[in-house]
C-alpha cells in the first residue's frame, strides 16, 4: 500500500542472426501508477550491461508516451518488436559516449547512497551478490562491517543507484532463520544525495572490516564524509 508492487517478467526475443535473447525485466509500479512512471530494471545474459541500460532507457521513453494509462503490456510488446533496432543503435553510439565527458553532464549525474543492513546470515553469498551488482551497475564505494554494524556506501550514476536499490529490495539475497532464501527486509536508506566537490570519489568497490569505531570514522573522514558519519553512524551504535 505504501511501496507499490514489484514483479518480474522473462521474455524471449528473436534478435539479430536469428538468435534468441532472454530478457529479464523487473517493473516496480509505485502506488500512484500509472500517473507516475514505473521503475524498470533490465538484465540479460546475452547482452552487455551497456546494452541493457540502453534497452531500459528506451522503455522509459516509451513509458512517458503512455503516462496515466496502463502501460506494462504495451512496453513488452514494443521491446519484442524493437529490440534488434535498440541493440544496433547501441553499437553505433557506443564509441561516441566518451565525448560526453567534455562537459560536466556525466559528473552531474553522480550520486551517493548510504544503506544500513540489520544482519547477514549467509554472509559469503550476500557479499558476492553485492559485489556482482556493483560491478554490473558500475558503482563504487564500500561494504563496511564493524561489529554488528553493516553499511553499504555507493557512488555512481543516479539511475544505476536506483536500480541497485530495486535489486537489493526485491532479490533473495539472504536466508531466514530456517535457512530458506529470503529477500532483504531489514534495510534502511540513511542518505541519498548528490556527490559534492568536497567528497572523494571512490575508484573501486571494496569490502572492508573495521575493529573499532575510530577505524570506521577514519574511512568516512578520508572520503570527506565526516558529517555523514556524525549524523548517521553514532545512532546505530546505541
Write up this protein.
Helices cover 38% and strands 29% of the residues. With 238 residues, it is an alpha+beta fold. The protein has two domains: 87 residues, Roll (Ubiquitin Conjugating Enzyme); 126 residues, Alpha-Beta Plaits. It has a five-stranded mixed beta sheet with strand order 9-4-6-5-10. It has a three-stranded antiparallel beta sheet with strand order 1-2-3, with helices on both faces. Strands 7-8 form a two-stranded antiparallel ribbon. Helix 6 crosses helix 7. The chain is globular and about 55 Å long. InterPro entries: RWD_dom, RWDD3, UBQ-conjugating_enzyme/RWD. It holds the Pfam family RWD. One of its GO terms (cellular component) is cytoplasm. Its main location: cytoplasm.
